[in-house]
Each structure stands twice: as C-alpha cells, then as structure tokens.
Amino acid sequence: xxxxxxxTSIDEMYAAGQVVGRALTAVREAADxxxxxxxxxxxxxxxxxxxGARSPFLGYRPxxxxxxxxxxxxxxxxNAIVHGIPNGYRLRDGDLVSMDFGAELGGWVGDSAISxxxxxxxxxxxxxxxxxxxxxxxxxxAAVVGNRIGDIAHAIGTVCRAAGYGIPDGFGGxxxxxxxxxxxxxxxxxxxxxxxxxxxxxxxxxEPMLIGGGTNGYHAAPDGWTLRTNDGSRAxxxxxxxxxxxxxxxxxxxR
Length: 255
What we know:
There is one protein chain. With 255 residues, the chain is of the alpha+beta class. It has helices spanning 7-30, 37-51, 123-141, 149-162, and strands spanning 73-77, 80-82, 96-105, 108-117, 172-175, 182-187, 203-206, 209-211, 218-220, 227-229, 235-237, 240-243, 250-251. The protein is globular and about 45 Å long. 49% of the residues are buried.
C-alpha cells in the first residue's frame, strides 16, 4: 500500500533529509587516505546525535540478513555495490567509496547515497560516478505527476545502459516515509508508461546502482550484507529522497 504524504509531512521529511545531507557532507569531508570506515561511521553518528535524530540503519534486519546491521552508515568500497559494513579498513589512494545513510527525525525518514574517490582519481571511476549521478538526475526529472514508475525506471536504465554499465538484478529504489522501506518499489530499469501512476504526495528513494564491468551479477560477501560485483569491477551508487508534487519533484535530501 502506498501512503500519500501531506504537504506538512513532506516539510517534516525535508528536515530529516537535511540531517542526511549534512551527515554525507561531513563524511565526504572526513574521508581521506588512512581514515578508517569505522571513523567515518562515527562522523555520521555524531551528526545524528547533534540533530537529535536516530538511525534507521542501526539494528535493521530484513529477511535476507543473518544479523542486524551494526552501523549507521553503509560504506561500500571499490567492488562493493551496496550495504558495506564499516570496519577497520583504512582508505587507500584511489579507492572508490559509496556511502549510504539514513536519518529518522520526528518520526520521518530520509535516505540518500553518494559515491566519490579518495585521493588520485582514475578516469574510469570518474566516468562511472558521473554516470550514476546523471542517471539519478534523469530519474528525478521523470518523477512528475502523471508519469508512472516505469518512466523513472526507464530514464535511469537508459543512461546506465547507454554508458555500457551493468545494473544489479533485483535492486532499486523504494518508497520512504515513516519507515525506511515502503511501497512502491522503484526499479532501475523498465518500460516507460508502465507501473503505478505517480501522484502528489508520493515520496520515493530513487537510487541507481551501476556496475563498471557492464554485467549485472553480484554476490553477498561472507558478512551476509555487503553485495559485491561478480566480475570484480568497481561500482557506484547515487540516491536522493524525492517527493512527487504538483510543482515538480522536490529533493528532500539535497546537499
């Protein structure tokens, strides 16, 4: 069931989204060669504390997970696509890092992700991240009243495939509201004009995930959470929480 949010609720979700934006900005600024993923998790956790917010990630345990998620930040490095668990790994020159973060404030959730390079960038990684951001922008542009979920999916998939990248099978965006994951599902590839009609008050997490090698396959790491590319190539992830409004898409997690 899809819950339509009131304009007041969307404003409250914007407040939660701004906590997310501040945290991701702080994490990116702190990320440097030699900094550990656990240290970055603490940076994000401190932003939550300062805002009086809580983490929808910490302790989250969906049906596929062997254990509750132990951190407030998903930190995925190089060939990790999503759901990386922060650990003692210290960032190295040239690492491609994807950070996914959520915050709950006043009973509403915001969810967003960024990808960036630590130290000296490789041209292939820059192109991969730029394409993820373009795919996100295309998905958001399609998130208008009168369109359908398939229009968002098609916009994202078109950008990714045209650049020669893979899209992880079965993973995409979702509704957001009182809970981090709500209906509807928002695929990263699909047919235009298909799926649920977009209405004023729908709030979606739109999140393209790209596999640099061009294949779609992935596997779960031994921790049961981290998803890694089957071909060993690098991956990028970009995400915003977006409200569908009569005035156009409103990015609630803008940084």
